[in-house]
Amino acid sequence: MIITAPSVLSADFAHLADDLVSVKEAGADWLHFDVMDGQFVPNISMGLPVLKCVRANTDLFLDVHLMIREPQELAAEFCKTGADLVTVHVEAASSVKIHEALKTIRSCGKKCGVVLKPATSPYALREFLPEIDLVLIMTVEPGFGGQSFIYEMTDKIAEVRKMINESNPSCFLEVDGGINAETVKTAVEYGANVIVAGSYFFSAPDRKKAIESLRN
Ligand code: DX5
Ligand code: ZN
After folding, report:
1. 19 catalytically annotated
2. Could you report the per-residue pLDDT of 113-155, keeping only the tens digit for each?
3. Is 12 a catalytic site residue?
4. Cα–ligand 2 centroid distance for 180 (angstroms)
5. Sheet containing 172-176: which strands, arranged edge to edge?
6. Ligand 1 atom 4, closest CA
């Protein structure tokens, strides 16, 4: 089964409540929420106050992607503010601190995951795999919506799918960046089962059809 997760980064923030309704009405499964700190990535997006408002306005499962340095420091706050799942980048802190962040998220009763930037080896997640619910493979450089899918990531998707099947088969494999009706086929063929789509979803003339096109 394919899970679809529109990325709120491409929503119209002046009409966010309407866009949240449209995500639900389009039949999407999750909502992807990108947090950027201007340090780990060269952009600043949104944080806890916006998450709080989103949580109050939707019952969608909230998939919070932390693109921040030292995520162990804020992970609990994102859980308390309404995240259902929180992912942290393996490149964002020492591995001891990434384990600490994951443990904190689990102790808040939420799902946790790790994210790999395009240049990061799939083997960087090996030590975290037994304790996580999801691996997110970035298929663009994190920081901005609207970039093109990096096709070279297919080998990594396949390798991570193999690792997941061998040691934690219920773990989700999510892809994020440059996903549209064409690139999704490649990502799913190589083993992804959670699909983030920002600009493709929010610029679609028919958002319901956009979700259907991501599931086929
Ligand atoms: C980029 C973010 C993505 C972004 C994807 O750093 O992590 O979630 O919203 O946008 P598109 O789907 O437009 O590439
Ligand atoms: Zn994201």
Report:
1. no
2. 999 999 999 999 999 999 999 999 999 999 999 999 999 999 9
3. no
4. 15
5. 3-6, 194-197, 172-176, 134-138, 111-116, 85-89, 61-67, 30-36
6. 145
